[in-house]
Amino acid sequence: MNAPDATATPQFAGSATPMPSFVTSAPAIHVRARLAARWIGITAFLVYAISGGGRIVGSDEVTMLELARAMLHGGIAVPVGATLDGPDGRHYTKNAAGQAVLALPLVAVAEVAEGRLPLPVARRVLAARCVVSFFNAAITALLLAVFYRFVRFMGVRARPALAATVMLGFTTPVWAYAKSFMAEPLQALGLLFALEGGARVANGEGRLGWIAALGVLIAVSVKFAMLPLAIVCLLPLARARWTAWIAPAIGLAVALAGHAIYDVMRFGTPFETGYGRQASAAAFTTPILTGLYGLLASSGKGVIWFAPAILLAIPGAIAMRRAGAAEARTATAAIAAFALAVLGYSMFEHWAGDGSFGPRYLVPLLPLVFVPVAFALNARRALTRAAAVLLAIAGCAVAIGGVGIYFGAEMREVGDYPYTRALNDPLFMHESHFVPARSPILGHWRMLIRNAREHIAHRAPRLTTRGAVDPRTGLTPDDQRALLHGLDFWWTYAPEVGVPLVPVAAALALLLLLAAWAGLQMLAFVAEDAA
Length: 531
Prior knowledge:
- This protein has helices at 27-50, 59-72, 98-102, 104-116, 121-132, 135-153, 158-170, 174-177, 184-202, 209-222, 227-233, 246-267, 288-296, 303-306, 313-323, 325-346, 366-377, 382-404, 407-414, 430-434, 440-456, 477-482, 490-496, 501-530, and strands spanning 83-85, 91-93.
- It has a two-stranded antiparallel sheet.
- Strand 1 and strand 2 form a beta hairpin.
- It has 24 helices and two strands.
- By secondary structure, it is mainly alpha-helical.
- Helix 15 packs across helix 17 (366-377).
- It has a domain at 21-52 and 134-411 and 520-530.
- The longest helix has 30 residues, at 501-530.
- Keywords: Membrane, Transmembrane, Transmembrane helix.
- The chain crosses the membrane at residues 39-57, 126-148, 160-178, 210-235, 242-262, 302-319, 331-348, 360-379, 386-409, 501-527.
C-alpha cells in the first residue's frame, strides 16, 4: 500500500481551500474498502435471509404489495383495506409508490411462481408473499455496505468501521425491519446516500454528485415526509459551489414529479397525497414533552432501549467536530436530521408509529447517527470499547426478541390488537408505551422463550388454511391464533403449513454454509482493508 504524501496539501477542485484529511488517503484504500463493503453486504443478506420471516401481513405491507401487483398489470388501484376511495370509486393506498416501483422485479418473480406452484390457492398466496418478503433483506444489506464504505471514506479505521456496521445491522431495530415489507429500510438508504453524497461532493469528489441525487430521489419517492430530512442531510454542501446542488436538485425534481403524477392518477389532483388530515397541522396534537420522552426513553418505544449503542453518538459527534471542518459538518448534518425527526414526530398524534417494533419513525435516521458511533469506536479508548461491548450485547438481546417474534403476534397476545381505542386517543396503547412491565421488549422475550420451548417439545403449531381466509393476512382466524405460539422464521413456518421438512432443512443448511463462507471472506477483506 502506498502511503500518501504527508507534505502535500490537496485542494478542493477549483479552489484554494485545503481538503480535509480523510480525503487525502491513497486510492488503494478506497478500493479495498469497497471490496470489504461488498462482502459485508453479501454476508448481511445471507444472515437476513436466514432470519427472515417469509411473511407479509401488516396493513401497510399488504397494500404496498397489492400496489406493486397492480402496477404489473397497468393499474394502481388495490383491494379495500388500509385504503382511501378515489373519485372513480376505486381504492388506493395512501402510501407513496416508490417502494412498489423498486420491488416490481421481485413481485413479478413471485407472481410467476404463484401461478406455477402445485399448491392450494391459499398456500400459493403465502408462497408468493414469502418471495417478496426478502426485498428488505437485500435493501438492508446494501444499506450496511454503503454505511461501511462511507465511514471508511470519512477516515474511520477498518475494524471500528466493521464494528459500527455490525452494531447498526444487528443491535438495533434495523434487523427487525429487514424482515418486513415496510418502507423504513429504503428511507434509511436514501438518507444515507444523501449524507454520503453531500459529504463527498463537498470535499472535492464532484463526479459523485449522483450519490446525493440518488439518495434524495429514493428517500422522497418512498415517503414525501423525508423531504426536509433529505435536505438537512445535504448540509455538507452549504459552503460548496452552487453547481454542487444541481444533481440533488434533479433528484428532488424527479421525485416530486413522480408524486404529482401518482397523486393525479389516484385523486385527480397533485395536491392530494392521501394522508388528508394527517398531512396538516391538525395531526400534531401530542404534547411535545410526551412525544420526546416516548421516542427517546419510554419503555415501549424509547430509542435508547431499542438501539442503546446510539448513546455512543454523543462522544462520537464530539470526536468528529474535533477531527476537522468536513467531519464537523457531516456530524452536524447527521445529528440535525435526527433531531428534526425527533422534534417533528414527537408532536404527531401517531408518534409511536404503531403497529411496529420500536420507534418506527426513527429507524431511517439510525444509519445517520451511527456515523458518529463509528467515530467513537475509532477513538482507541478502553472505556469506550467496554461501553460499546455492553451496549451491543443489550441491543442485540432486544433485537433478537423482535426478530424471533413478529410484533403483530405480541400485540395480539397482550391485547393491544385489535385496537380498542382510536389512534389519536391519548390513552391509545398507553400501558405498552409507558409502563415498563408491559414493555414489548419483555413481551417479545416472554413469547420467544415459551414458543421456543414448545417447538423443542414438538408442540409447534400446525396451520390448516381451512376456513375463511383473512385477505390481509392470508390466514384463517384459527391459524392466526395458532401462530401466537410460532417463531417468526420462514424455516419454522414452512413445516407448519405442510411443506416437507427435508427440503426446508436442506435450504436452511445451504444458507448457513453460504453465510459462514461469506463471513470468512468478509473478515479477510476487512483485514486487508485494515493493513
